[in-house]
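Thread: Transcriptional regulator, RpiR family, structure

OP (GT): Posting the sequence first so everyone is looking at the same thing. Length is 296 residues per the record. Can we get the structure tokens written out before standup tomorrow? I want them in the notebook alongside the other entries.
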Amino acid sequence: MNKDLINLISGMMAGFSKGQKMIADYIINHYDKAAFMTASKLGNTVGVSESTVVRFASEVGYEGYPQLQRALQELIRNRLTAVQRMEVTNDQIGGGDVLAKVLGSDIENIRRTLEESSSDNFNNAVDALCAARTIYILGIRSSSALSRFLYFYFNHIFDDVRIINTNSSSEMFEQILRIGKEDVFIGITFPRYSQRTFNGAKFAMDNGAKVIAITDSPQSPIAEISDTVLLARSDMASFVDSLVAPLSLINALIVAVGLRKKNEISATFSRLEQIWDEYNVYEKIEGTHDIDVTKI
């Protein structure tokens, strides 16, 4: 329904009451602002009562106003420009407690991610990764931070992990040229969705590789061409992308894979500890002693 919501409201306009028409007209022309308004604020802005706004939500097919508001937020997820996102930031936070507002939003993103997560999808992703010959990871723009974090740990766990570093589509295809049916492609993309990440996932799918999407919504373009979709909320409290829930999901994926391959990675990390000590990779703190984990 999200993709057709504006058309749906426009098509129902003739049957609305005067107050509902005022609400509909505002949503159609200012959906970017309406998506973050409470029922009370939307009513005050339009000049109708809060109860009229609630009845309007029911009229267009939602259980209540929160469901309509969520649908509007889904609708604009990939439509807002940077300027519009800045305006949303000012409307939502303004001169308020920025720290509390942003951290509260991130907490809500993690809570909703947990509620909406599929254990079956998560386990399917772990199975595919553990059976993969080569793992390719692609995340562009702000998602590149997530892809590099995932690559850092997977590189310690798997024999052949490749992060796709690219400034152009041609470079990307050159780096995944040999991807095949024994491989896994992980595409990480959040609004505004990357066309290049979608194209890479499509190429991987066409060549028989399993595609794992880490994204925010079943309506995300990459979700349609993926074998497994892992959802993490990135609803913005500002013009800055919220990556807290996606990073938490990636942490869970790393831990699950690590537990599955604990014997192999124990040997790897033992070797790494020797290298780190030999070449002074980490600063040693005087007065500390090695901990005997067998006694913990």
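GT: Both are above now. Quick notes for whoever picks this up: DSSP finds 14 helices and five strands in the chain. The mean pLDDT is 86.
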